[in-house]
Amino acid sequence: MINAILVFNNHGKPRLVRFYQHLAEEVQQQIIRETFHLVLKRDDHICNFLECGSLFGGSDYKLIYRHYATLYFVFCVDSSESELGILDLIQVFVETLDKCFENVCELDLIFHMDKVHHILQEVVIGGMVLETNMNEIVAQVEAQSKLEKVEGLVVTGRSRRQGGLSAAPSRAVSAVKNINLPEIPRNINIGDINIKVPNLSQFM
Amino acid sequence: MALKMVKGSIDRMFDKNLQDLVRGIRNHKEDEAKYISQCIDEIKQELKQDNIAVKANAVCKLTYLQMLGYDISWAAFNIIEVMSASKFTFKRIGYLAASQCFHEGTDVIMLTTNQIRKDLSSPNQYDTGVALTGLSCFVTPDLARDLANDIMTLMSHTKPYIRKKAVLIMYKVFLKYPESLRPAFPRLKEKLEDPDPGVQSAAVNVICELARRNPKNYLSLAPLFFKLMTSSTNNWVLIKIIKLFGALTPLEPRLGKKLIEPLTNLIHSTSAMSLLYECVNTVIAVLISLSSGMPNHSASIQLCVQKLRILIEDSDQNLKYLGLLAMSKILKTHPKSVQSHKDLILQCLDDKDESIRLRALDLLYGMVSKKNLMEIVKKLMIHVDKAEGTTYRDELLTKIIDICSQSNYQYITNFEWYISILVELTRLEGTRHGHLIAAQMLDVAIRVKAIRKFAVSQMAMLLDNAHLIASNTQRNGICEVLYAAAWICGEFSEHLEEANQTLEAMLRPKVTTLPGHIQAVYVQNMVKLYASILQQKEQSGEKEAAQEITQLMIERLPQFVQSADLEVQERASCILQLIKYIQKLQVKEVPVAEEVIALFAGELNPVAPKAQKKVPVPEGLDLDAWINEPPSDSESEDEKPKTIFHDEEQRHSRHRQPEIDEEELARRREARKQEQANNPFYIKSSPSPQKRYQDTPGVEHIPVVQIDLSVPLKVPGMPMSDQYVKLEEERRHKQKLEKDKKKKKQKKEKRGKHHRHNSLHTESEEDIAPAHHVDIITEEMPENALPSDEDDKDPNDPYKALDIDLDKPLADSEKLPVQRHRNVETLKSPDSEAPLVEKKSKKPKKKEKKHKEKERDKGKKKEKEKKGEDLDFWLSTAPPPASTTQPQSEPEVGAAVVAEPQEVKEEREEREEEDDEGKKSSKHKKKKHKKEKEEKSKDKKKSKKKSHHSEEETTESVQNGTLDDEPLPPMSSYRLLAENPYIKMTYDIQGNLQNDSQVTVSVIFENKSTSFLKSMELNVLDSLNTKMLRPEGSSVHDGIPVPFQLPPGISNEAQFVFTLQSIVMAQKLKGTLSFIVKNDEGSTHEKLDFKLHFSCASYLITTPCYSDAFAKLLESGDLHMSSIKVDGISISFQHLLAKICFHHHFSVVERVDSCASMYSRSIQGHHVCLLVKKGENSVSIDGKCNDSTLLSNLLDEMKETLSKC
Questions:
Q1: Residues 6+ apart with CB under 8 A from B1107
Q2: Do B322 and A83 touch (CB under 8 A)?
Q3: CA B428, CA B421: separation in Å to the nearest integer?
Q4: Do B18 and A111 make contact, defined as CB atoms within 8 angstroms?
Q5: 127-166 in chain A: CB under 8 A from chain B
Q6: How close is the nearest chain A Cα to the Cα of B244, in Å?
Q7: At the N or C end, where does chain B have fewer CB atoms within 10 A?
Q8: Which chain B residues are Cβ-neighbours of A175 within 8 angstroms?
Q9: What DSSP element (H or E) covers B119?
Q10: Which tens digits make up the pLDDT trace of A102-153?
């Protein structure tokens, strides 16, 4: 069983936090901090296993991690998982992210945490490995994105300039903005804003 | 500028989406918390809006904030709202948020049940998928119970995507709702052979998780997994299966034998390191389980070690690490094969990776021998010096001590060397393990008599150099060694050469800066030293020197009298007065030394750490008995729900008030023991050494140590362990030479004489004679010490609940709860509803069904037997015994009846059939053939059984079994209620587990007439204790309408709920059924009176109980006991038990021969335990129950049942 999956950057900022047992938020943050300090100390050329189960409240647990550029991917697993298998799984997960985001970088994870979660859910659920075949994972993720896109189109009734997978959720939301506009007690020309919304995001 | 304005207004106007929130947080680095709290306020506003899209957006942002550590549980209800959105986009957001923040304590989670059920059955597979994913994170026992059936259905979904998810979620459901395991298991097993590899993998995954916790229940799946292992190409699945086999082999060594070959093949063929590694691991597990040393397995060990060596030598640190890890597993059983790779492992100590060094250290622990201990420790000492970072150095230190002290200093040949090592370790700066070194010094000095002289000289040196050690008191715990040094010097002061000097060292003012407990030891041991010096001086007649030393004490002791530490102060002032008194005597020239030394007379013997615990409780002493009667607190008890756990808790708390609970006591005892062990003032058990020796003759027999003079006793200066290594080498060399000489001599002799017993000496362990004839005094144990009885099992282990026998056929009651519509009329909790609805079907049909089910059960049982046999057959390598030659004599059949009654019965039936149907020869032949086959299998079984007996002592006991291995007469629990020419009523009463004060009375109404019966109304005269539950608003005199009409000859069942307060006595209620009889002639109003008898047995609910829980219950001692004996019983024990089970709602806990323990539970939580013994013609039943009245009533009822037999 996988007990937790943590992704944080070289400064310890969490990018993805997924615990498969309930822990209070403060405890989660504490664990992330401690894990980060443990992992940070370690050279890139030493082994990727860490025995510090006490951190997660079980002697059986082991940390297995990989370091990619600015990100650490840490899996906390118990003895039923194969160490090398989990290392492969991390690789599969990262490659899947790369496929779904097209050259994934930390920024993708920062701004699309929800999407990263959705991808992860196709790999691991409830602490158990669901699928290890990357093509299958990508296919399922894309099918669901497509479903979202269809729903988004139904709401807006028109398509937008923005394309790509990552745009789908935000489009759905911005479509909602348009619907809400009349309710906002402000004297603003609706047409103007509609045009400006997509452009603005580029400046910020 | 304009842009900023626009942005600002948009910010206010539009809801931020997730990206905006992230961006905002990144732009407000300096006041992030403030910004986020603003955002949370906005989110709260958004959540108040009706628009689901806005809500979803808000929840999405909350999920992000949760990752940053913000509690979002306050939005749980909104999350549920978003979860129930119709659009997948929003639903997914909701479920994601829920999976991140919901848990068992989330109270609104119960609102989700129907929503989740709806989503699970959604036509859109992704809705279902999202619901399953979410559920996997927050499933609660309630959700698990309510949704288990739905998820189980999804395991057979058309889409593999859903199937595999459903299979995985089932594991979570099992954990939360263990009752679901047995009903769901057949389907899970089916999924092992699913056409989709993903589903298959998921099923393997789940079963592996289950089997890891309770492997014995899954042994029967071994053939299936074996097939999968040899056919699957998916490495993930293979790894899981191989790991599972690793868990199974310890239980079934035969399985291991079968595995070795395919595993070694895999090891040779696979290119995947992960798979190779797991194979090696499992082979190791197999070899461990086969530890009986099969010669042909040494090849497998060699193969493993070889492969591991390749891993360790690999440049990949991960492989190196895993190689070492696996190596340590081999080490436990095959140390020799690992020891040959010592070089490699010592190399790993130089690795830059700390994890690898630690692993290598672990290995070294198991690799030391008498021969290489010094060498290995020397290497470690070098590492200690080099090591940077205190944690690793501390780890090294503890490892050195562990390695040397393991199994009673088994590998130490030279204790002087060890003491020097310990002394060298005291020079470590900043270690936390001073106390560890101190403990070792004390232990060695006390237990190895021969070393005392040396130890004392070393300790004196430490005391002399105390300033070096004590200089950095604040920073480290190394000053703890002074504690040991002071005590050793004091206790064994007779070995001190320069006692004066040591005494002076101990009296230095600097000592007062040491921690209090060390000073206290100093003070006490000063006196011991003083006493021995005094004696020495007096004997040699140096009176002045004696007075001088007294004077010195009187001068220096006051610094301790002023100590802030209570104990130091107390001891110092006591001793100061004592010495002042001595001085007075000395002035009068009275010899005092003898009396002073008598203060510290007596020999010390080490006491085993467990000695205190092992002292048996004297007969007649009840430690749990009250010393004073407890204050009564019985009033509150009745209100509390009576479950096993509550009862236990109450008991505990009662104990706690007057006494300290056991744990605390044990802790204190341990602490006291520790203190006694370390504290020299405690161990004075006898007044004089002579007497002591007389008391314990054993001590005298301990051989007095002779010191090998080839090792010089003193190494000048501070000890250097290295010198010992050199000396040791020389010594060994010398020994070897001597031996060689002897050998030559022998050879010479041999030439002349005949060959005597002569073995070629290779330098093995046994050859290395220890430098000292060391006697390690074994630790003392009390007389008649109790055998150890530690129970490490954690009662809170969530996996324990999943220890369920999966091969047993399913019982009716084990169906997963299915959601039905609520029946308003019968005021019931939804859980009890399901079985009730079933019962409403017409009676004959039901009977038929029951019969069918029984048949099916039988079939299953047979199947299971077959399977068990299959496993045996699959595992056995020997050919099945030939059976054709065996004569089929009558007694043999008789024996078979006992063993396999079911088969025999079927056979008999077959025979009867034959008789009935005439004798078609072809058929006859066929049957005969079949019979023969059966006979064969029987024989095989028997032989199997025999082999079983020899292998593992199986007692013939039935555990928790339903007793269906013997044909039973049909039994009905329905009793006659009343009868007249029109109608017949039979009834059965059943308790309701969910409600401790309700029972359900099922009444079957059978129309015996040719008329139509309608408007039936049942009324009962309530008693104070027992009342019929009527719809709200109706008075106690109103009857309850029976919800059906009866055409001629038809019967139907209706149920009525009764509430009751006390259940300890049987009750009778008078009642009337009124109805209208309608026929061609018209209609008449009729009445039928009846008496409803609530027997005590009807308040019991058949509850299975495992034998360990049962034993615990009996031990608990708060059950009342009563017994009955019934004579003239002729029916078999089997029937008897079945009767009790059926009519009195008991279940068999364990059955051995003609004795069985049974268990049941009342609806109000009374435990009822029975011990049923069958004699020649009688049966005795001993019962135990929380309530004596209930018990005696139950036993009376049982007596009645049995006397009818």
A1: B959, B960, B1149, B1150, B1157
A2: yes
A3: 12
A4: yes
A5: 127-133, 136, 140, 143-144, 147-148, 151-152, 155
A6: 9
A7: N
A8: 53
A9: helix B113-120
A10: 888 888 999 999 999 999 999 999 999 999 889 999 999 999 999 888 887 6
Which A positions 52-71 lie with beta carbon below 8 A of chain B?
Answer: none
CB spacing of A184 vs B13 below 8 angstroms: yes
Q: Identify the closest residue of chain B to A168 by CA–CA distance.
A: B89
Give tens-digit pLDDT for B1111-1170. Answer: 877 877 777 888 888 887 777 888 888 888 888 888 888 887 788 888 888 888 888 888
Q: How far is B1105 from chain A (nearest CA, A)?
A: 30
Residue A17 near chain B (CB below 8 Å): yes
Q: Write a three-state SS string for chain A.
A: CEEEEEEEECCCCEEEEEECCCCCHHHHHHHHHHHHHHHHCCCCCCCCEECCHHHHCCCCCEEEEEEECCEEEEEEECCCCCHHHHHHHHHHHHHHHHHHHCCCCHHHHHHCHHHHHHHHHCCEECCEECCCCHHHHHHHHHHHHHHHHHHHHHHHCCCCCCCCCCHHHHHHHHHHHHHHHHHCCCCCCHHHHHHHHHHHHHHC
Whole-number Å distance between alpha carbons of B1184 and B1119: 6
Confidence of residue B758 (pLDDT cuts 50, 70, 90): very low
| Of the candidates B823, B803, B1090, B854, the residue with the CA atom closest to the CA atom of residue B960 | B803
3-state SS assignment for residue B1012: strand
Q: How many CB pairs under 8 A join A and B?
A: 193
Contacts of A20 in chain B (CB under 8 A): 137
Q: Which residues pair with B432 in a beta bridge?
A: none
- Separation between Cα atoms, residue B166 and residue B129, nearest integer Å: 9
Calpha distance B912→B916 (Å, rounded): 6
**Closest Cα in chain A to B167:** A130
Residues of B in contact with A16 (CB under 8 A): 67
What is the distance between the alpha carbons of residues B274 and B981, in angstroms, rounded to a whole number? Answer: 79
Closest CB to B168 among A80, A112, A125:
A125
In chain A (204 residues long), the average pLDDT of successive 10-residue segments reads 92 92 90 90 85 72 90 91 91 92 88 92 92 92 90 51 36 32 30 30 30
pLDDT of residue B868: 52
Q: In Å, how far is B126's CA from the nearest CA of chain A?
A: 7
Predicted pLDDT at B775 = 57
The answer, yes or no, to whether residue B23 has pLDDT greater than 50, is: yes
DSSP labels for B219-237? GGGHHHHHHHHHH---HHH
**Which residue did the predictor score with more confidence, B724 or B280?**
B280
**The overall pTM is greater than 0.90:** no
Chain B: residue nearest A148 by CA?
A: B89
pLDDT for B1116 equals 76
Query: Any idea which residue has 């690999």 for tokens?
Result: B314
Evaluate whether B1064 touches B854 at the Cβ level (below 8 Å). no
Which ipTM score applies to this complex?
0.79
Closest-CA residue to B1080 (of B1041, B1050, B1048, B1051)? B1048
Residue B915: predicted pLDDT: 47
* φ/ψ (deg, to 5) at B974: -80, 125
Write out pLDDT tens, residues B201-216: 999 999 999 988 888 8
**Which residue among B23, B69, B165 sits closest to A204, beta carbon to beta carbon?**
B23
- A30: which chain B residues are within 8 Å (Cβ-Cβ)? none
| The residue to which tokens 């692993």 are assigned | B359
CB contact under 8 A, B318 and A169: no
Take residue B343 and report the two structure tokens written for it.
């070089």
Model pLDDT, residue B96: 94
- Whether residues B71 and A25 touch (CB distance < 8 A) is answered with yes
Distance from CA of B904 to the nearest CA of A (A): 45
Q: In the prediction, which pLDDT does B739 show?
A: 65
